[in-house]
Amino acid sequence: MINVLLCGANGKMGNAVRRVADDNDLVSIVAGFDVNTDPCEFPVYDDLAKVSEKIDCIIDFSHPSLTDAILDYAKNNKIPAIICTTGLSKEQISKLEFYSRETPIFFSANMSIGVNLLIDLVCKASKVLESNFDIEIVEKHHNQKLDAPSGTALAIADAISDTVSYNPHYMFDRHSVRQKREKAEIGIHAVRGGNIVGEHTVIFAGCDEVIEVKHSATSKEVFAVGAVRAAVFMYGKGPGLYNMSDLVKE
Ligand SMILES: NC(=O)c1ccc[n+]([C@@H]2O[C@H](COP(=O)([O-])OP(=O)(O)OC[C@H]3O[C@@H](n4cnc5c(N)ncnc54)[C@H](O)[C@@H]3O)[C@@H](O)[C@H]2O)c1
After folding, report:
1. Contact (Cβ atoms closer than 8 angstroms) between residue 219 and residue 198
2. Nearest 5°: CA angle at 39, between 34 and 42?
3. CB within 8 A of 101, min separation 6: which ones?
4. What is the greatest pairwise CA distance in the chain?
5. Is residue 32's pLDDT more than 90?
6. Across the chain, what does the average pLDDT equal?
7. Is 141 part of the annotated catalytic residue set?
8. Are 45 and 51 in contact (CB under 8 A)?
């Protein structure tokens, strides 16, 4: 049994992970970390120093302000950390890469297997279409989401940038400049409303034809399923930075 410390245990994703882990024979959540210490089926602590249970792996769906402390906890206890929190700063991404030299770290802005397939498909499409099509990304999320654009939209843009032969720049604020669209840009747009779980559409707009590749998540469970699968995947892994494409390949 893999003993998991769940960071953000009383949040929306924390609750989804609890439901998914309940049905999984390999994973057991033995402790939680959250500012909200409402009791549940395991103890929830408001300070990582208070965790007394033996922990094999961390699953984190909390807040970027906690990421540094969670990485330190993983490093000090020599256990894998699955960081699913989004909105990390560039410095935090660098820290994550630096820590992964000593600690097994799994990081993915989107834990859904479907989104990772979408990334694969849009990279293939970008190779074929790059010279004649403009690329725009539109993401939609619920009205409680804090960061914009989503970490997934940025991950899609980064994957396209790594694929095409030119070096695109990202255009977030089209309203702030009055000028025509440049060829070497990827427009990234965020929509917030209602309880939309997560939608990402990549638009390839050419002359007289448009291709759209879209993924829609209708429930948060898809991310929780991915996180629990990642806990199993990471068990026994050595130091390194892992992501969903490593998991999907295995
Ligand atoms: N990678 C993915 O696939 C994926 C999918 C969904 C959500 N997310 C990300 O996961 C994170 C959590 O999402 P959510 O919808 O569950 O949010 P949420 O607000 O419902 O839950 C966050 C939890 O973290 C706790 N928390 C926040 N700040 C804290 C602090 N300083 N100390 C202790 N606890 C603190 C809150 O009390 C809350 O219980 C977000 O960053 C979100 O974007 C990632």
Report:
1. no
2. 80
3. 239
4. 63
5. yes
6. 95
7. yes
8. yes
φ, ψ at 20 (rounded to 5°): -70, -40
Residue 94: domain span: 2-111+220-249
Q: Would you state the pLDDT for residue 110?
A: 87
* pLDDT 10s digits, 43-72: 999 999 999 999 999 999 999 999 999 999
- Predicted local distance difference test score (pLDDT) of residue 238: 96
Ligand 1 midpoint to CA 68 (Å): 15
- Report the distance separating Cα 169 and Cα 84, nearest Å: 26
| Res. 97 pLDDT band, cuts 50 70 90 | very high
Residue nearest to atom 43 of ligand 1 (CA): 86
H or E element that contains 234 = helix 221-234
Residue 200 falls in the annotated catalytic set: no
Average pLDDT, stretch 163-190? 94
Here the CATH number for the domain that contains residue 225 is 3.40.50.720
Q: Do 95 and 164 reside in the same domain of the chain? A: no
CA of 224 to the centre of ligand 1 (A): 12
Tell me, what's the pLDDT at 248?
A: 72
CATH of the domain at 178: 3.30.360.10
